[in-house]
Design brief:
By secondary structure, the protein is of the alpha+beta class. Helices cover 40% and strands 14% of the residues. The chain is built from 7 helices and 8 strands; from the N terminus they run αββββαβααβαββαα. The protein has an 8-stranded mixed sheet, sandwiched between helices. α1 packs parallel to α6 (167-189). The longest helix is centred in the last third of the chain and has 23 residues, at 167-189. It is globular.
């Protein structure tokens, strides 16, 4: 089996995504890219996360060809491939339907930076990508475009996508977005979340990148 280690990491991230409550049932999807071959390891379509094994993970090239695997790749494989195709730095993609972040996506409202944790891990507001039908190449195009200036993006009326250099870091980022969305939604009930000033966001982000708060 090719790229067994990467496939195992994708399985672990997918199981953790479900355990953290970021998806329900078989919703959402996870992928990781191998820097050597450029192949993408992605979760299969319609398989419960608690039953996933490394052999279930599908290997694909950026043109959408299946390089190895007997399962059907996630229905959102076009979105994952578009993201990888637009950025050589992305090595992991997490797509969730986490309830608080998805509430912002359904409302089509960006998640502003009003928490130090959000400033550190995200460094900028989480924007909303224009609506596009799930599973289409168009969705991949609009998400990849938004991610050129962001580390996570809301899919209008759909969910969240978080990216990073590794699949583990992308999962961590997706968890932070959900926590920030949860707290800020409560803050809206109390009269409104107060965003941090841009210079303060930059200071917190720079401190984080120097090693503060790294998980």
């Amino acid at each position: 089996m090719r790229l067994e280690h990467l496939r195992t990491r994708v399985v672990a991230a997918a199981r953790s995504m479900a355990a953290y409550g970021l998806v329900a049932g078989t919703a959402g999807n996870v992928s990781g890219r191998d820097p050597g071959t450029g192949l993408v390891a992605i979760t299969p379509s319609g398989l419960p996360y608690n039953t996933l094994e490394a052999t279930d993970i599908v290997l694909m090239d950026l043109q959408g060809n299946v390089a190895e695997g007997d399962r059907r790749p996630s229905t959102e494989f076009r979105m994952h491939l578009a993201i990888y195709g637009s950025s050589a730095e992305v090595g992991g993609v997490i797509h969730t339907h986490s309830p608080y972040a998805t509430a912002y996506a359904v409302a089509r409202k960006p998640i502003r930076v009003a928490m130090a944790e959000g400033a550190a891990v995200l460094g900028a507001a989480v924007p909303v990508a224009p609506y596009a039908t799930t599973g289409t190449a168009q969705l991949g195009e609009v998400v990849a475009r938004e991610l050129r200036a962001a580390r996570a993006v809301l899919l209008a009326n759909h969910g969240l996508v978080a990216v990073a250099e590794t699949v583990e870091e992308a999962l961590f980022r997706a968890r932070i977005v959900e926590e920030v969305a949860r707290v800020q939604l409560y803050a809206e009930v109390l009269g409104g979340a107060v965003p941090l000033a841009s210079h303060e966001i930059q200071k917190v982000r720079e401190a984080y990148e120097r090693g503060y708060g790294q998980h």
